[in-house]
Amino acid sequence: MSFEVNEETRGFQSEVRQLLDLVVHSLYGNSEIFLRELVSNAADALDKLRFLALADDTLYEGDQELGIRVQYSQAGGTITVTDNGIGMSREEVVDNLGTIARSGTREFFNALTGDARQDAQLIGQFGVGFYSAFIVAERVTVLTRRAGAGEDDGVSWESDGQGEYTIHNVKRRRRGTEVVLHLREQAREYLDGARLRGIVHRYSEHIPFPIRMPREGEGESGEEVVNAATALWARPRSEITDEDYREFYRHVSHDFDQPLAWVHSRVEGALEYTSLFYLPRHAPFDLWDANERRGVKLYVRRVFIMDAAEQLLPRYLRFVRGVVDSDDLPLNVSREILQENKQLASIRAGSVKKILGLLEDLTGDRPDDYALLWKNFGRVLKEGVVEDAANRERIARLLRFSTSREDRRDNDVTLAAYVQGMKEGQRAIYYLTGEDFDAVRTSPHLEAFRARGIEVLLLSDPVDEWLVAHLGEFDGKPLKSVARGVLDAGELGAAPAGSEAPVDDAAGAALAARLRAALGESVKEVRVTHRLISSPACLVVDDGDPGAGFERMLRAAGREVPRTLPILEINPAHPLVARLADEADERLGEWARILLDQALLSEGGRLEDSAGFVRRLNGMLLQLLG
Ligand code: ADP
Ligand code: MG
């Protein structure tokens, strides 16, 4: 055995110097990622050994129990990450820890701007890997020996990350790598078992190797495995029981209830990824919180990257929980980079299809479960019609409605079922929107439709105004509001005999003109209606106007919206309206206001001047009493 002088000091490749500088200065806010990177490297080394040992099992050197160890020393101020993986030869250490061999390195450095924030995002795309150790360490020592090499072929590498490193051979009995971080003063917070475990749970729970840490607590000794050490989703479906899936759901969702359904799939080809999505049984308390970010976790090759629900799935699927594991994305991809990543865009599109497929299966196989899902998440799913034009048709088929037909169950009618139930000659899918379901259900706008047995969708969710605006049509049939535009009698077909008194059109039009004059700027128009049977009047939104509900929503969203005026439609067949024809102008003015106000009330609207309405009504009542 010869002990030649083998220590040498070498300079880092200039790109490494730049990278180190960048890492330390721009990633301090993300310092905890150092552990993820080192554990990930350890896992890679274990993966490599496992692979090479397939051909040559002497590489195991009699130790087949692959694992990772995380230790810390308060006294020494160090954190040590050890693996018994493939290890490195001296040459490999020089190549891997002193240079960057990756393709695109030059482009990366050319793209740097000098602006720390922007460059931090670029680093995310490039990947900081091993060098992230210097975010928290003022000095890093790597002790390693290649599997299968002799005991004297161990290597010690050490650097303060300032531009140079020293390297020399050491005696190492065991194969694999040990990375010792001599922490900076500001990073001593990491010398804490609970903190380190937390980071392991967050980022490395499903690394498919056990990560061991010393047991904590008085009288405790020895070590324990601190991660789950299996990536459930990476196992073949045939090996996973329903109970396994449920366990894992609890883990990803923090929901103690059971999931309603799940879909686990592997996509292979140009882009490879695995996804496991769950539908929860009930809504989380923060379903309506626009900043909610939890939901679907992104992994790259089984390394947790981030909670990235908002990049992996569109907002209307924000109730879905689960995991996407990509084989192709860079390990240190940042949120900002994900936004523009093409691979992620196709993962996202594929994931949406999977989930829509799962929902479709549920509607067919387990309608009661789908009804439960619809009850909890229907209002969220409806946003998909607005948000996801590419899948609008599919989402439309998943929608469920209440309708004006008495023989239908609430929240149970599909658009397809509606179309099937359309009357002969009916061309449109009719709907009515409003703020309050009961007001919509009893609205006078439905009278003529009810009388003819024409079904009307009753919409009272805030998103419904957007829904109908974006859906436009279904199965070639336009969606048409029963409270908007002109409704001509021909469109509805004949009323059942006796349900409507014959109307003298000329007299009705004359009265409408007088009411219009009396109401002045409160209305856009007054006209005779075909909508009503038992009510005297109703309000209609002009084609092209947003309508009261829509305006309310825009205002609630902080937008300034000019008030558009309603159209008052009167029913001359109604005895009250019929009598008005004989009223003198001054009294007609009072009646006109009452008609207008009660039309608004009857559709569930709120009067601007309710005291004025009551005063006028009482005045009329007094006159009646004489
Ligand atoms: P990456 O993991 O993306 O390749 P890193 O900067 O994390 O980049 O690591 C650089 C290289 O150093 C790795 O590719 C590997 O060859 C080597 N390396 C780092 N850590 C280990 C380890 N624990 N065991 C063996 N090789 C390692
Ligand atoms: Mg790495």
Folded structure, characterized:
This protein has 626 residues and is α+β, with helices and mostly antiparallel strands. It has three domains: 5-228, Heat Shock Protein 90, CATH 3.30.565; 234-392, 2-Layer Sandwich (Ribosomal Protein S5, domain 2); 400-625, Heat shock protein 90, C-terminal domain (Four Helix Bundle (Hemerythrin (Met), subunit A)). It contains 23 helices and 22 strands. The strands form four sheets. It has a nine-stranded mixed sheet with strand order 1-6-5-4-7-3-2-8-9. Helix 11 packs antiparallel against helix 12, helix 12 runs antiparallel to helix 13 and helix 19 (505-519) packs across helix 22. The longest helix is centred in the middle third of the chain and has 24 residues, at 342-365. The protein is elongated. The termini are far apart. The model has no long low-confidence stretch (mean pLDDT 89). Magnesium ion binds next to helix 2. Magnesium ion is lined by residues 37, 40-41, 129.
